[in-house]
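User: Structure tokens for this complex, please. No commentary.
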Amino acid sequence: MNSMRMHWVNCLAAFGLVVGLTAGFMGASVAQSVAGQAYSTYVNTPAASSGQAPLAVLPAVSGTDGAEADAQGSALSVPDALSSDFLNSITSGEIGTTESGAQSTASAAHINILNGLITADEVIANVMSRSTASGAASNADGSTFQNLVVAGVPVTWGDDVVAPNTNMDLPGVGYVVLNEQIPSGDGVTSSGMTVNMIHVYLQSAGGLLGGATTTGEIIVGSASSSVGP
Amino acid sequence: MMREQRNVIVWPSLLAAALVAAACSDQTNLNMAPHRPSFWGGVEECPTGKWTGGGRMDPPNPDFDDGATGTSTLEGKVTFGFNVFLGSDGDGRCIVTKGEIEVNHHPSHTSWHVSIHNGQDAYGETVFAELIDPDASGRGACLLVGVDPITARVDGNKGTDQVQMELCDNDRGAPQNSRTDAMRWISTGYGDTDLTYLTGGNIVDHGS
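Assistant:
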């Protein structure tokens, strides 16, 4: 009789263990895809253009693996649009059993945009995305401007952060978005972040209904990362 | 992708069926002797594994819990990225079998790069590694790359430098910022950041 009772106790215990294990597997799943890229500068204006440079793109990562990519440029000059030096782009990503993630960094120094309209000693764009059993999240911690001046107005003294998506007018030119942050994902199984430290939108009057139309853009310091199911 | 999701469902289901079937069968002969894994012997082997990460740090900002000295001779903004694979050499010593490391020190406009293939850097030196404090302290684990300093290219191909890197994954599998990760970069030519908490980014020990 006792033996029979033990048999069913074992049976029920095993069933409970299996239910718990299965729930654990389902809840503990982490991201199975990661992506990242970074570049220091991009110019696309009616007068001049320069592609995303130096561009670092995370190679495909599958299974439980990791990868890193980086690119450097000593200096860049696009007449009347942008000059900068010490250009660095890095991205890395990994897929693991308990954690997956991607992180990207882009930087540029001695920045001069539109013949002194915007200057900065340096900008660093830094983003990371991460997925664990507790969810997915991204942030742009570590993204800063050093001695940023916009249209003659000092915005940062020394190395400092600027509130995300700070918009400043550039009379006769358009506007600039500082620390432009573009999030993505559901925060549970996916998350992503793109940060453009300086994003100039060139505009001209005469658009539909008398509004302004965007005629070009300049980006300095762009980093992206994402994790997904 | 779909295959992986399907596997997540299929394998637990097979496991469930097997466990329940075994428990419900009329087994009468249980072996209660302790079962130990075949490698049991009390000697810790060099772990295989992979470490990946990147971000920014701003020394001085010492991680004393993991052994920072409190003295930084290489200060200011540092950005970095890396991906390293661990293994063993013929003598059982821990090495980095392959990897890439990029580190930028912004105040001095200096960049270092290390490429590792077949256990050696680009100058033929074996890249020894050591896992530090892989215990159950709850403080995560740290990895030293370059137990014997390795050679990095500086600013492209303008020169070389002897370097070491220490990485600490302090929030393994836990919510972000449970405890901030840390990194140390030692350069013979430029100085030592000390073991420094990251300002942003992440360091991940993502296993074998």
